[in-house]
Amino acid sequence: MPFAPHEITVGLACGIGPDGHWHGWFDVRVHPDALRRLGLHPEQPTARVTGPSPPGWWHAAAERAAH
Fold first, then answer.
1. Handedness of CA 30, 34, 39, 42 (dihedral sign)
2. pLDDT tens readout for residues 1-48
3. Are 30 and 11 within 8 A, CB to CB?
4. How far apart are CA 22 and CA 40, in angstroms?
5. Which pick of 19, 24, 30, 31 has the fewest CB atoms within 10 Å?
6. What is the model's pLDDT at position 47?
7. pLDDT confidence band for 63 (50 / 70 / 90)
8. Cα end-to-end distance, the chain, whole Å
9. Strand (E) positions, the chain?
10. How far apart are CA 38 and CA 47, in angstroms?
11. In the 8-state DSSP scheme, what is residue 67?
12. Residues 39, 42, 45, 51: what is their CA dihedral angle, to the nearest 10 degrees?
């Protein structure tokens, strides 16, 4: 892995969702300096939205495919 243990944090939360089933959520946080070392930073043109969001049907199809 390109990150040292102190440069990355993974959080996990679990709970019962509104449908009564257990769900898990996680987030991954990487220190900005670690990303810069890989050539990634907020000033990059590709780090910004450059066009319109895909249409609603596209998002719905992606959600169905994920399950």
1. positive
2. 688 999 999 999 999 989 999 999 999 998 888 888 888 876 777 666
3. no
4. 35
5. 19
6. 61
7. confident
8. 28
9. 8-16, 22-30
10. 14
11. -
12. 130
